[in-house]
Amino acid sequence: MAQRVTLRKRTPYNTTSNRRRVVKTPGGKLVYHHIRKLASAPKCGDCGTALPGIPALRPRQYATISKRQKTVNRAYGGSRCGDCTKQRILRAFLVEEAKIVKRVIKTQQQAAKRK
Question: What is the dihedral of CA 89, 93, 99, 102, to 10 degrees?
């Protein structure tokens, strides 16, 4: 007859946060080992790809690691990937350039009206 195994936590329900595995101890007893949930990697806010250089942890574990491990040393470090950052910077530059061109054309038209 198989040995009975008792739960080590209070929750008896078979939920995703209460997964368990039967493990045999060196003393020959069978015990439950509770398995933690798998962590998903942080994603880029624009394109949704996993951010390279940032570990995949459960939310509470980010509090225990240092800031240097949670971010990447660049603008939009821990929230956007490199390609999306490049696009954002380029877009911002082009928008500013367009504003300057618009302003220059306007001043040229005003100068032409005065003549």
Answer: -140
